[in-house]
Structures are given as C-alpha cells and as structure tokens.
Amino acid sequence: MVVREKILDMVVGCFKRHGAKRLDTPAFELKDFDIAGQFDPMIPDAECLKIMCEILSGLQLGDFIIKVNDRRILDGMFAVCGVPESKFHAICSSIDKLDKISWKDVRHEMVAKKGLAPEVADRIGDYVQCHGGVSLIEQMFQDPRLSQNKQALDGLGDLKLLFEYLTLFGIAEKISFDLSLARGLDYYTGVIYEAVLLQTPAQAQESFNVGSVAAGGRYDKLVGMFDPKGHKVPCVGLSIGVERIFSIVEQRMKTFGQKIRTTETQVFVATPQKNFLHERLKLIAELWDAGIKAELLYKNNPKLLTQLHYCEDMGIPLVVIIGEQEMKEGIIKLRSVASREEVAIKRENLVAEIQKRLSES
C-alpha cells in the first residue's frame, strides 16, 4: 500500500502541477490526464508528453523512451504501400507486435495469415523499421511515396511542430518518432504515443518484464460519438499504467532486497531511564503540535537499546533522548540514527533544530 500510495501521489501531484481538476468519475482513478477543447495545434499534445516525462523521471524507474507516431501518417503509409482499406485494421494489429516479435515474423503473419501481397508487406517494412527524431520527419517529407499523400503530410507537419515544442520543454531526446507505433486506431485521430522502459543488461538477465508504462494520443471524434447533438470536442490525453509500474517497482524491490518504510515517522522520543513516561509524553505532544511526525514506545520503562533498535528497523532518522542529566541541564540529546552522533540542544530550541535538520535531509 505504501509503494502504491507513493506512485499515485507522484502522478496526481504532477497532474495538479499542470492545472488538472479532478472529475467526479472513476477515470481519474485510472490516472488519466486529458485536455479538451479547441486549441492551437500541438501545444496541449506537447504538454501531455512533458507530463509523461516528469512522472517517469520522478518515479525513478530507470531509462525510458516515448515513441511517437500519428494516425494520419499510418493511414497514409498504408495507402501509398498499397494496403486495401479493408485490411488497415488487421495490418495495424500485426505492426503493433513489432516490439515483441521480429519483422520477419510480423511480415509472415501479414502475408500468410492476413492475405497481404508480399511486395506490399515489403514496402511497409521499409517504413516501420524506421525510428528517430526530427531528421527522420524531414526524411519522410522527402520520401517519394509518402510525400504524395496529403494525410501523411498533415501528420508529418504536426509532428515537426510537436518536436519544436518538445525541444523548448527540454525533452526532445526522450522522444522517438517511431513508424511502427500503431495503437488505438479505433479512437485516435492524430498523434499517438507510448512510453516504454529501456532494459539494462542486468534487468534483461533478471528477466524483468518491461513493457509500456504510459500511453495516449489525440482523439478528436470520440466525445462527439457520445454527444446527442454530435458536438465535436477535440481532445488529447494520456494514461499512466499505475498497476504495471507498481508491479515493476515491487519486482525490483524483491530482486535487490530493498526495504520500504511503512511509516513516515521523523523523530522518536526515547529515554535511558525509568519513570520518564510523563516527560516523554510532554515532549512528544510538543513535537506533534509543531507538525513533526513522532513516535514513542507504549511502555512505562522501555530499555534504551530496544528503543534505538526500533528506530533502526523502522528507518526513523532522528531520536530525542531525555533523562535525569538532560532534565537538570535543561537540554535534550538529539541523535542521528544513521551516524549515531549525538548533540545536546537547549530544550527551548529543540523544535527549531529538528525542523532545520528535516528540511536539510
């Protein structure tokens, strides 16, 4: 639950930073972010990709790439390659498997199982094995076949503009124009994108199952289908695969033996002596009232070692220690659990010192 909560907090925090308002629907629970309305091209689309980058970087899942394509480029590519319109969907679903199986296998499926002419499949192969950045978009503008198709040119024009904005957002190197990206053709009308984690050699050995962790695109006709008057509302959005991310994080924690803190306690109130419960209760109330997350053991006379071990086990960073000597001198000992260093702090300065340390950590 702690891991899941941290992931969700990160995602929702990012959405709010970008001006999201919560809808009274279960959709927000799926961690979707959508921008609806008539705006100038590619500005909201670029922000969606920026949000994806912020979330994936913030979750520290490792290196990732966001593949980008456009529905119009796909349709144009199929048309100029000679795919019959009735086969667009079937061929699309084959191409979508290219991240899992080889081009040879995809080609075989398209020709043997879906009845596509071999020369048409080969023409498609020339395109779908291409991926790159702005230079690939420029290359496709010059392509003798694709440049003859208006839909494809519209899509390429928008992608060129998109990359301009992505460069200004400082994320262009995380984005790859990938002609094999062919998803959600039932509803996407323009730009489509999908974020995938890149496997390190160590992860490949550990057989981490790393697939798509976020996806989205432009769906300008979907809302109109549900509107009785058929009003068109242009939309672009993204969806974060929280459950998949959660299972990746959980799997990594098991593999690397990482422990997660199940509490957020910042300070533990301890004593080395008997009959100090009253002082501990007064002290902890002071910390709670100052907004500091604090704990003590629910025992009258706990052993100091037991208290310190508890802090180490629970990952609590600071311990305040009060005993007879400290009472006499009007001080409190503040101990760092990690370094085991102790310093004496005047009682009246304790809250300020703890807050200072917490803000530095």
UniProtKB/TrEMBL annotation:
Entry's Gene Ontology BP terms: histidyl-tRNA aminoacylation
InterPro entries noted in UniProt: aa-tRNA-synth_II/BPL/LPL, Anticodon-bd, Anticodon-bd_dom_sf, HisRS-like_core, HisRS/HisZ, HisRS_anticodon
GO CC list: cytosol; mitochondrion
Alphabetized SUPFAM superfamilies for the sequence: Class II aaRS ABD-related (SSF52954), Class II aaRS and biotin synthetases (SSF55681)
Pfam name, any one: tRNA-synt_His
Domain of life of the native organism: Eukaryota
Domain Class II Histidinyl-tRNA synthetase (HisRS)-like catalytic core: 45-245
Keyword list, A-Z: Aminoacyl-tRNA synthetase, ATP-binding, Ligase, Nucleotide-binding, Protein biosynthesis
Amino acids binding L-histidine: 34, 183, 187-188
Family: Belongs to the class-II aminoacyl-tRNA synthetase family.
Enzyme class: ligase
Residue ranges constituting the Anticodon-binding domain according to the UniProt record: 266-357
Entry EC no(s): 6.1.1.21
Molecular-function annotations in GO: ATP binding; histidine-tRNA ligase activity; identical protein binding; RNA binding
Protein name according to UniProt: histidine--tRNA ligase
PANTHER family: HISTIDINE--TRNA LIGASE, MITOCHONDRIAL, HISTIDYL-TRNA SYNTHETASE
Keyword Nucleotide-binding: yes
Catalytic reactions on record: tRNA(His) + L-histidine + ATP = L-histidyl-tRNA(His) + AMP + diphosphate + H(+)
